Batch of 2 targets.
Target 1
Amino acid sequence: MGIEKFIFYIFSVLLIASASMVITVRNPVKAALFLVLAFFASAVLWLLIKAEFLAIVLVLVYVGAVMVLFLFVVMMLDINIERMRAGFIRYLPLGILVALTMAGMLIWVVSGDGSAFNHSVLHGPSYSNTQALGLVLYTNYVYPFEIAAVILLVAIIAAITLTLRRRPNTKHQKPAEQIAVKRHDRVRMVKMKAEERK
Amino acid sequence: MIEWITSLLSFLPSGWVTVIIILIKIVVIVLPLMLAVAYLTYAERKIIGAMQVRLGPTRVGWNGSLQPIADALKLMFKEIIIPAKASKFLFLLAPLLLIGPALAAWAVIPFDAQMVLANVNAGLLYVLAITSIGVYGVIIAGWASNSKYALLGAMRSAAQIVSYEIAMGFALVGVLMAAGSLNFGDIVRGQEGYGFVSWYMWPLLPLFVIYFISGVAETNRAPFDMAEGESEIVAGFHVEYSGMPFAVFFLAEYANMILISALASVMFLGGWLSPLAGLLPDSVFEIPLLGPLLGSGIHWFFIKIAVFLFFFLWFRATFPRYRYDQIMRLGWKVFIPITIVWLLVLGIAILAGLPPWFSAA
């Protein structure tokens, strides 16, 4: 067995196992950690098909940023697992339907005459996936790219303003005022004569 | 050497031979690195000792030179205490998650013109992605300890690491703009020309300073050592750790320091390039013995790393610890705006072809 196939099978088994652990494990923190593992395994699979930019960005954005914040939230919440499991039977038929539809679509795409995969072009080792993506993003798709960036910025500002509470009573520091302070603002020098001891 | 190993392993399929050769290369990188980590602790105690007018370790070996080995042995034979109701697997996994990225990032760092384990085109992105995983070690350590102090400590240092990663990432964007490449070899080669004048630290000076300070914050070192805070709190996320897992946390901290220093010297100080190459006439570099020493080579890379490490230790001996809100203010309200403004300045400089750094582009 070639080394690539070996790596592929190890990480696809890891991916499927960790993905199913995400929805079966009881502890929400562990579920989030299994999701991290699933992201990692799929990044390796992307590396195998030479999509290094996607693989690295998956690790950088989802593992390095999104899941860290997610984990923060999950750790802070007091999640009642019993209450979360209450609707399991009721939603099961719908869940099975969605799962079957997704699986059917995937099988339909993969088992066709292969026309879905004929567009793939193999490049040499010096070909840089990152550079190619960057060139396309900043030439052909520069307006959609910039508009998406602005929308994200607006979303960030909106999220901050929605959660920002002004608390006037907190005693936080104002560094500008601290730096601007002069001696006579804080200390009053008093000149007085030495008194004789009685 | 590599041919010899290849011929020795010729009974295996060719794919496996490549794997074994890569494994050997990894050992060649990691073993000296761990030794450097051990002796960095010794250097730290000696240098800070000298700065504070004391001797530092003197008993074990000549002038205390075997102290790191003795410390390692002591920690190895200590009992590993796992707290009651702690998540045992995650508790033991956390230190490994912290040290793993610190070692894995070395894969793309070029030691010399041809000496690199993986000559990856997206090397800079790889380093950003790999180093961002380290924060999981902190979070998992805090959570798996089943202790409220550890959890709070983990929250503090994880928030700190995530915040400073942003400023650090922006500083790296500046390097990427200046070099026009994500490959570390190309980044170093982009700084060739007029010796130290051509290094990126001059056009990127604010980014360079911010990168290094963020690096200090990322590694949880003084004056940003909120995680440890030895004079105020017991310890942060690793309060429940003892013996070897605790030692691995320590190793990870020092391995991260060396990594940050190596990255800073590759990206801003021209890696293996000599500060004199291009300034002195070529005939100087052909003098036997002295010539190769003055010329570019791996020794310059190590000297630059050592200088940065000295700065790390110097900071620890000099600065008082930041308060937590001051750390957050510095990261978000000072560093990130400065980096964004400097990216704009840099863009104008590149467009104008500012010599000597951007004149060719």
Target 2
Amino acid sequence: MNFREYKVGARMFGICLGGSMCITLLMPSYDFRSATSTDMALRKQLSAGWETGWNVQDPLMLGHNKPLTVTVKVDPKTGAALPAPITVFVYDKGVHMPNAADHPDNLGASVEKLSLDKGHIGEFDAATGAVYTIDHDNGVPYIENLTATKSWTPDEVMSKASDGDVAHVGAGKTMFVREGCWWCHTLLPEETQDWQVFGAPPYLGDFNGESPTAFGSDRKAPDLLHVGSRNSSREWMMLHFFNPRLVQPHSIMPRFDYLWGEKDAKGNKIDYDKWRAEYTEYREGKRENPPEVPSYAPNSDIRALIDFMLSLK
Amino acid sequence: MLKYLFAKSEDIPSGSAAVFFGFSSILWFVVGTGLGSFNAAKLAFPDFVTGNEWFAFGHMRQVHVLAVIFGWISMAFAMAMMYITPILGNTRLWSEKLGIWNALLWNIGLSLGLTLLWGGLTSGREYSDFIWPIDLYIAFFMALPLAINVWMTILARRVQGIYTTNWFFGAGVFMVIIVFLTGNLPEFFHLTGLSEAYLTWWFAHNVLGLWITPVAAAIAYFTIPKVTGNPLYSHRIGHLHFWSVVVFYSTPAAHHLMSAPLPEWLKSFASVEGVLILVPAIAFVSNILLTMQGKWYMFVESLEIRFTITGVLLAIPLNMQGGFQQTRAINWYIHGTGWIVAHAHLALLGFSTFLEAAAVYLGLQSLMKRKLYSLTLGNMHFWMLLIGFSIYWISMTIAGLIQGAGKIYEVPYIDVVIAEHPYMIARWLGGTLVFASNIIWLYNMWMTARVGTVIPAGRMPHELAYER
């Protein structure tokens, strides 16, 4: 054990590496903690849910146990029409509560105080689930737990909502992560001329509570952080996902037709081989029009993914 | 190899673990570059093998990256450590049995992790894509046994000092465990938001800076003096290299997120520290090249020296790019473009791979005591690897500059895609050449093990390279 002569070196090594980790990990962590959630952060956190990477609640990454984004037009208690529709985030029983419910300190001081005092986010019962919305107080956003403040339950909200009012954003972000969309599409407009094309670059507090952030690093395709503001056409998204060359002949995006699953919206089996054969004929000029893209089933993966895309405002 | 799993330690031939790691690493190199070539084909021809989840680009891209990093590069490192550390300590590997178990557990864990990733089970964090149970497996069943073996071999050495290579090995295996456990904290403790994003890139930076770069350099510190017979030019410059890696290379993680809303002080600090990466880089390159004094003919004649020196020469553009491309003045133009992809391949496929390939060539021949089966195939491997890599690097650099121009001049994105198309084809051709060269290498090494000429005791394989 001839180690003694390296005692000084080993201590120097510890000081160097420890010092480096102190500056690069400990010091920034105070800055990150003091970041105050913006509207965008609250929206992303509540719509995507606790975690959209791999986690034990959704071990096969099928988009299970994720919150729903619901547009509420009538009061679910009384049935009276609301003055204006509001967006709520429904966490049914069994769905992991958002990060802010367990760790409100991650919201940033002012948002945390409002969310706790006026929004009652601390008062949730995982056994019944909760309904959240985003409210404002003098321009400061905060999370309101409607189950605590108005005793709206997930079941009541869902019973008054039609399928068109519901967006599977949490499941859709899971698809975004699982299918590796972020290997080519970034979620981070840069502070160069990007903001004119892809929208505003994000601020310090735009990510609080989000996991994974999936910024992406290798932009082989347009940035998507604000794609829902540029293009809100569900029809275009559907064609583009099924075969991007239908709407953009030069696109190098892969086809995501397999996300349609076995059956289309009417419950008929989708014949992929026939579709591809007809598409090949179209591309070779033997057909005037490409084959019709099958409409997706309401519980298909692609529906969730398109819901997520359109939620990226 | 598997018959030694339950054998008594003294019955296991010295070097078995290193040979196991060596052949595994070549196999993973073939797999990794094969996936890379396949992925590149999909970027050039998007309808190539389509409509199947298991062959979708988004499912395969990360498998390529991690197969190459944890299969090829890291297993070649393990091979080099198990071969070189005992030699430099004038002793045997501390536990040959632990080494064989380590190689087996490494292959099992990596196969499992990559299969899950391929199926889409990912943490969604670049470079730390593995899900957290696999992360823990990697730290405690792949990295830790290797570290124990390296440390114990160094402690059990029968020489007075510790040579430069072994400082890096001993520190590298320590740092990779720390980096792994720290970088995956967001998954273990569900850290979110910017903490998650920043730690993702803290990991990505440091797994390169504190594991791949120093350990690859350490291999060159062994190969060049060993094969040329020259002593290392300067022990002190080696010190400068070692300490500046620990101090400077561990700090600039934030420069990967220059366009993200991190605190400004952190970005400025990272940028300055990033330029200081040139200190260890220049120390390393000058030390190695000066060690070659009087032996430059070996750059032509010796396969191992040719591989090593090519890798060291590629470290010059690598660090010139790396030091300056992360400053704000340059980063705003090239961030997120193919330039970065080219740079990453310059680091891993250029600089690092060439150094490790030399170690695997030299180590497998020495340990199996068999001369390389065919020097011609070895030369073919070298040139196909170098030409394939060069095509890849040049085409992706050009593609990146096109993308950068498209970005700042607000060119509609699809026009950038169209302009990049020829370079995507070139990239695929370059990658395929690399893949083909590795199949040749695997064949050559396999035949070396089977029918290579036996090396007489006391002689080095490179001394016999031209003898029939």
